[in-house]
Structure to design on (438 residues):
């Protein structure tokens, strides 16, 4: 590596904020590594490379055949983040990482805030309005309930608060991406993020099988059950699988209501960050409080994200630009996930408690299922739905 | 060229996952500026009917 510059502190070589881009010569090897991992993992705009992990999974999906109308690799949440992460993890653990890559790989710390801000146009709150007020309230209540219960139960299961935070975010929003989005806000370790991701996806897969069995006993209508799958299972294809396992009509309502969960997703990670940030301020001297430690104020990119989210919700960013921006998000998170995968050993994923994260996901997730089924059943009984 | 199994056990002691202090703030600012530039560029070009 360029040891002469690597050993000089950043403060000593800093001239402006652009010093964090380092020199082109320093960052090129790492950026190329991220680039090739990204295009070997995903279909990305501008690079028509058919031989990538995403297409391999799609091929295998077609060989295996769908389960309840959903592809198996979709049920296990393979996507542009995790494909690149696993590719990076494989390369890093089998071949290692040369020192010359590291300056470039440190761009992950620019790609994370960049990607989080650019996610804003993806969540148009108004799109949830078609579902009606009561379904929106149920999804929002389930989100807050799940996040709060997960954070509280983590203390009893002795799960590290950073690990619990990313798990709470992923579980509450029904979107494992949130585990990664919360990583820089919470200051979580890479192993905690991946452990939480695996726990959320595994529990979601179990819940997508169990919920239809319970739903049949509760006697919900297909429409009410479709709503329940979105809040109680989440994770897109997992919720749809649960819906179609109940009935074709329930599956279609799962897809219909999923937009509510989707557009409220930012509220989930903002809630978890807010709770843990306030907790850190209140118990600053408690050595057990690790989440958000080192975050002295609300990060600027979080504020910019919220402002952009509000602006986007006013339909300033219309469909073609929104799609183009999301293609950039895919590029951004694919590059960042490749660097994250390269950064850790497989063992680090389990160092944070092989079973604790999964146990926490199971207990919190089961309570969430009970909460959602009770809420949906009560609303149906008192005819609070607009159907 | 030296390879390391774990990106953090660096031969020169530099951990690329470390992120704190003024370097973190600068990285955040650069990320935000690039994100806003991309979003504004794509939105404005759409309003100008360039695609």
């Amino acid at each position: 590596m360029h040891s002469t510059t690597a050993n000089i502190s950043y403060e000593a070589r800093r001239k402006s904020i652009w010093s964090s881009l380092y020199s082109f010569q320093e960052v090129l090897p790492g950026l190329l590594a991220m680039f090739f991992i990204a295009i070997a993992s995903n279909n990305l705009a501008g690079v028509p490379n058919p031989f990538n992990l995403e297409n391999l999974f799609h091929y295998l999906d077609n060989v295996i055949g769908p389960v309840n109308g959903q592809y198996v690799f979709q049920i296990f949440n393979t996507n542009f983040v995790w494909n690149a992460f696993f590719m990076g993890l494989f390369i890093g653990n089998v071949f290692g990482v040369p020192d010359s890559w590291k300056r470039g790989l440190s761009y992950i710390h620019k790609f994370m805030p960049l990607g989080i801000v650019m996610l804003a146009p993806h969540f148009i709150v108004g799109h949830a309005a078609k579902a009606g007020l009561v379904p929106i309230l149920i999804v929002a209540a389930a989100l807050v309930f799940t996040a709060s219960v997960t954070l509280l139960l983590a203390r009893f299961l002795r799960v590290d608060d950073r690990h619990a935070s990313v798990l709470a975010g992923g579980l509450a929003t029904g979107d494992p991406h949130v585990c990664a989005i919360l990583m820089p806000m919470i200051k979580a370790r890479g192993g905690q993020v991946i452990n939480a991701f695996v726990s959320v996806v595994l529990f979601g897969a179990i819940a997508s099988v169990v919920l239809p069995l319970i739903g049949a006993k509760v006697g919900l209508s297909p429409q009410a059950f479709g709503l329940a799958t979105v809040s109680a299972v989440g994770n897109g294809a997992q919720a749809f699988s649960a819906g179609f396992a109940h009935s074709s009509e329930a599956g279609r309502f799962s897809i219909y209501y999923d937009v509510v969960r989707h557009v409220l997703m930012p509220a989930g990670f903002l809630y978890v960050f807010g709770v843990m940030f306030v907790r850190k301020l209140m118990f600053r001297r408690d050595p057990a409080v690790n989440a958000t430690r080192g975050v002295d104020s609300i990060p600027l990119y979080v504020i910019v994200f919220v402002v952009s989210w509000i602006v986007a919700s006013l339909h300033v960013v219309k469909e073609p630009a929104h799609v183009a921006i999301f293609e950039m998000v895919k590029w951004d998170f694919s590059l960042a996930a490749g660097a994250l995968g390269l950064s850790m050993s497989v063992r680090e994923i389990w160092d944070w408690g092989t079973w604790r994260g999964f146990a926490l996901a199971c207990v919190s997730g089961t309570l969430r299922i009970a909460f959602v089924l009770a809420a949906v059943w009560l609303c149906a009984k008192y005819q609070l739905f607009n159907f | 060229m030296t390879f390391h199994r774990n990106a953090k056990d660096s031969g020169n002691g530099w951990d690329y996952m470390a992120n704190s202090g003024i370097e973190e703030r600068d990285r955040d600012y650069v990320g935000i500026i690039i994100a806003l530039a991309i979003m504004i560029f794509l939105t404005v070009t759409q309003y100008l009917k360039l695609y």
In short: Chain B has one helix and one strand.
